[in-house]
Amino acid sequence: MTIAPNALTRAQFDVSDVIRRAQGDLVGAFGLDPRECPYRTITSHSYWRLRDYGGEDQSPSLLIIAAPIKKPYIWDLTPSTSPIRFCLRQGLHVQLLEWASWHVGNYGIDEYVLAISEAVAPITAIAEGAKPYMMGHSLGGTLAAIYGAFQPETIRGLVLLGAPLCFEPSKSQFRDALISLIPQEISEDGPFPGSLLSHASALASPNTFIWSRLIDATLSVVDPIAMEIHARVERWALDEVPLPGRLVHQIIDWLYRENRFCREKLKIHEKFVGPHWLSTPTLIVINTADQIASLKSLIPFIEKMTTKTQIIQYPGEVGVCLQHLGILVGRQAQATIWPDILSWIKCQNG
pTM to 2 decimals? Predict the structure, then answer.
């Protein structure tokens, strides 16, 4: 079975995006809309904007690279399970790079890496030359790692949470299934519906995106807080946004199919990048219950790195809806894993 993302299919899933967002608004009307903490916009472009959540200018800066899929409030889902609020309480000056849901141009990996560079510059200026730490989850972590290999001298440390980095055949069932579903030469023209990507992901790993989700809902019934978090993640998952066709094409072909980043064959602004060039201290957090970025799939990339790298394994937990998001929304993650993440950051700062 393959998914042919032609013009007709895209049009059908454009409608699906609208329907799913309407469903999300309906769910949100029952008190499940996001409750984000205040922020201001430092600078912006047609396809991104840089949020500043505050903190002392002299405090270490942490730049979060949001994933381009869906909206970034998954980082601040509830006051009790919010990595952003946790980092603020720990004295970090937190910023977040948000990708446009208001305008979808035809941008690719080059432009996304350039946006990260343009976000790092004002953060460093505000901090009077002090380099920021960088953090990303999922594809946000992949983009952060690519940037870290492209301009490692501009950041102090890198934290990657459930980030796919290596796409060797047979190392990841999700990777193998995804590229078998999506044919080569995806059209770069026009926006790529978010619900089409969600549909492909569910077909590639039904255990991750369907069955484990249903099991989590069942196990959460006896715990009202877990049930609320699960419901809020479901509301977030309905908040589909389109992606640039060029970005989706390059992610699927250049990364998932051809594994260019791990093979040092990914060219960013005339420079080849890969694990050898990622020379900044790096912390990698792996959810052992997640199939999207398993330890097995990451080992070939980690073995090629020349920098000081630490790995933290997180076993997942009940009440997170999708295990891939557990590190961001889980109560146990916030109680046990995030203190270790902040300790690592403080050690690099010392």
Answer: 0.96
